[in-house]
Write a structure and sequence with these properties.
Blueprint lengths: L2 E3 H7 L6 H9 L3 E3 L10 E3 L4 E3 L10 H12 L7 E5 L5 H8 L4 E5 L8 H4 L4 E4 L9 H4 L6 E6 L10 H6 L6 E4 L20 H17 L6
């Protein structure tokens, strides 16, 4: 059965943004393997091995930041020096990641309220836009102060991305980068999502294909 190094496995699982950070957490005793507290970065493990990362080993206010970090690296998108829009900000994992990667300002948009981490709420680089639905976003919302808003990240729930991509894109300068987390359960018809769970791989692929087709129909280039 295939085995991989612990540090590589942590990276593959999206638990750390870089292998170096994974190794640092392991050496600091922040990673447990099957309950064992003294694993080594080079330990060879099966993919199904139970791995626990202690909460304070995550460098962002939520694990969402790890997902975005992996995407930024994978797509080679650099937030440094840029103005960004975080749609579906919630507690602010994506926002935190953008700031740590050098974004100069982040608009944190969420339809809810009271969720954004207090540290981010107090950060002068963050504009907290609570009780704001992505479908209601327009360039006028941002005024003329930030015409170079050219990076958007999205993690929305209980709504299809197809319903919010168009207004979000309308707010961005050209050219732009947009990274959106696809949640198949919100892209498929209810009968394909029994009890809110997508159990068949073909349906997951269908959700992705449907969104790709929608994006291709927009007057923007797909990355």
């Amino acid at each position: 059965m295939q085995k991989e190094r612990l540090d590589v496995l942590l990276l593959r699982k999206g638990l750390f943004a870089t292998r170096a950070k994974a190794q640092a957490a392991i050496m600091a005793g922040k990673v447990r393997v099957e309950g064992r507290q003294d694993p080594k970065p080079g330990d060879l493990l099966r993919l199904e091995t139970r791995i626990e990362v202690l909460k304070d080993a995550v460098p962002y206010v939520s694990r969402g930041g790890l997902k975005l970090a992996a995407a930024l690296d994978g797509f080679r998108v650099d937030p440094y020096g840029r103005l960004a829009l975080d749609v579906g900000a919630s507690t602010g994992g994506f926002t935190d990641c953008l700031l740590q990667r050098g974004a100069v300002k982040v608009y944190a948009v969420d339809v809810g309220h009271g969720q954004l981490d207090s540290r981010l709420r107090a950060d002068p680089r963050v504009v907290c836009m609570e009780r704001t639905h992505a479908r209601d976003l327009t360039p006028a919302v941002f005024g003329t102060d930030d015409p170079s808003l050219d990076l958007a990240v999205m993690d929305v729930s209980f709504i299809s991305l197809a319903k919010v991509l168009t207004p979000v894109i309308a707010c961005l300068a050209r050219p732009f980068d947009l990274i959106a987390l696809i949640k198949p359960q919100f892209e498929l018809e209810p009968k394909k999502v029994p009890k809110g769970v997508v159990r068949r791989e073909e349906f997951r692929l269908e959700a992705v294909a449907s969104l790709r087709a929608f994006i291709a129909s927009l007057p923007v280039a797909e990355r």
